[in-house]
């Protein structure tokens, strides 16, 4: 069975958790920063993705606290999540390297300038 490429929001969420545990709002901000503002996660999308990643064992709840009368969960990457993220990062690196190699060796049409 071949593995599908990871969807960008999933990749960004796992990346956002790679260096430190974060709560929901911090994840939304971190994904925005990592993507240069291209990806803006809505709350419903975020928590649906977090539930899926929890079920897959890629993240875990690192802490729960009550802030202003509301429960706040902090999420962290699991060992399995770190492995999946590392595999996807390597896949992307290899694809980007091949694209760069092919671009560098591309034949320019006659009359084209650099």
Question: If helices are DSSP runs of H or I spanning 4 or more residues, what is the number of helices?
Answer: 4
Q: Radius of gyration in whole Å, from Cα?
A: 18 Å
Structural class computed from helices and strand pairing: alpha+beta
CATH superfamily: Winged helix-like DNA-binding domain superfamily/Winged helix DNA-binding domain
Number of domains: 1
CATH C-level label: Mainly Alpha
Percentage of residues in helical conformation: 40-55%
- Total E-strand runs: 3
Report the CATH architecture.
Orthogonal Bundle
Overall geometry comes to elongated
Q: Biggest sheet: strands side by side, in what order?
A: 1-3-2
Span between termini:
43 Å
Could you report the average pLDDT, rounded to the nearest whole number?
91
Low-confidence stretches: none
Q: What is the CATH fold-level name?
A: Arc Repressor Mutant, subunit A
Strand content: 15-25%
Helix-strand string: HEHHEEH
Largest sheet: 3 strands, antiparallel
Pfam families: PadR
Protein name: Transcriptional regulator
InterPro entries: Metal_resp_DNA-bind_regulator (IPR052509), Tscrpt_reg_PadR_N (IPR005149), WH-like_DNA-bd_sf (IPR036388), WH_DNA-bd_sf (IPR036390)
Compact description:
This protein has 114 residues and is α+β, with helices and mostly antiparallel strands. It has 4 helices and 3 strands.
Structure, explained:
The protein has a single domain (8-101), classed as Orthogonal Bundle (Arc Repressor Mutant, subunit A), CATH 1.10.10. A three-stranded antiparallel beta sheet has the order 1-3-2. With 114 residues, it is of the alpha+beta class. The protein has four helices and three strands. The mean pLDDT is 91. The longest helix has 26 residues, at 79-104. It has helices at 8-17, 24-34, 43-55, 79-104; strands at residues 22-23, 59-67, 70-77. A hairpin with a 2-residue loop joins strand 2 and strand 3. Helix 1 crosses helix 2 (24-34). InterPro entries: Metal_resp_DNA-bind_regulator, Tscrpt_reg_PadR_N, WH-like_DNA-bd_sf, WH_DNA-bd_sf. This is Transcriptional regulator.
